Amino acid sequence: MEVKYQYYLDRLTPHTAVRWVIALISLIFFASRIVLLQGFYIVAYAVGIYYLNLFLLFLTPSIDPALEFEDDDDGPVLPSKTNDEFRPFMRRLPEFKFWYAIYSIVFI
């Protein structure tokens, strides 16, 4: 069963829009379940805080430039030599892990 689950997860990985539509539908189902049952508000509040934490991790860079340049008063500078390394924006929480955490917590 675990192999089959991993197979479908691997097939769904390159389809970003489909994954987020599935996550949105599951969130709508979760919210409608809370409204219809008129309960589980504390659980929904905790899940909302967890989602906010995930979202902030998703927006945060993995390497914080403010922590890297504490000794310099000038702050971060652009690369001036050709051998300086260009580092693109890398997230602390990748998009797939962000989606997977959102998707899995709804079903838990």
Description:
With 108 residues, this protein is mostly helical. The protein has one domain (1-61, 89-107). It contains five helices and no strands. The longest helix has 22 residues, at 16-37.
Give the topology.
Blueprint: H1 2-12, H2 16-37, H3 41-59, H4 65-68, H5 95-107
Helix pairs in contact: 2-5, 3-5
Count of discrete domains = 1
Helix count equals: 5
SSE run: HHHHH
* Overall helicity: 55-70%
The strand count comes to 0
* Outline type: flat
Assembly state here?
single chain
Unreliable stretches covering 5 or more consecutive residues: none
Give Rg in angstroms.
20 Å
Query: What's the end-to-end separation, in Å?
Result: 18 Å
Q: Main beta sheet, described?
A: none
* Sheet/helix structural class: mainly alpha
The average pLDDT score comes to: 85
List keywords for this structure.
flat
Provide a brief overview of the structure:
The protein is mostly helical. Helix content is 64%, strand content 0%. The chain has helices at 2-12, 16-37, 41-59, 65-68, 95-107.
